[in-house]
Amino acid sequence: MDMKRAKQIVSSSADIDVTFAGTSIWIDELHEENEMATVHLRGPLEERTQVAIKDLKEEETR
Question: Which among 24, 49, 53, 61 counts the fewest CB atoms within 10 Å?
Fold first, then answer.
């Protein structure tokens, strides 16, 4: 994913499915200076981690 699309997803009110390493995540915050994002897993666990935006994948809607 690129920074432009990540910004669109973060600012959207739609529920857009994004994955990191095959796991569904929420994007919490974008860090433009180093092309990273703070994310957490969808579900009850709220543990946050930073990952490279290029490693995020938007899943196709079925």
Answer: 61
Distances (CA, A) of 15 to 8, 33, 38: 12, 26, 17
> Considering the entire predicted model, what is its pTM?
0.87
Q: 3-state class of 45 per DSSP? A: coil
Q: The CATH number of the domain where 15 resides is what?
A: 2.30.30
Q: Considering its fold, how many domains does the chain have in total? A: 1
Question: In sequence order, which residues have a C-beta less than 8 Å from that of residue 33 and are 6 or more positions away?
Answer: none
User: Which residues pair with residue 29 across a beta bridge?
Assistant: 38
Domain hosting 14: range is: 3-58
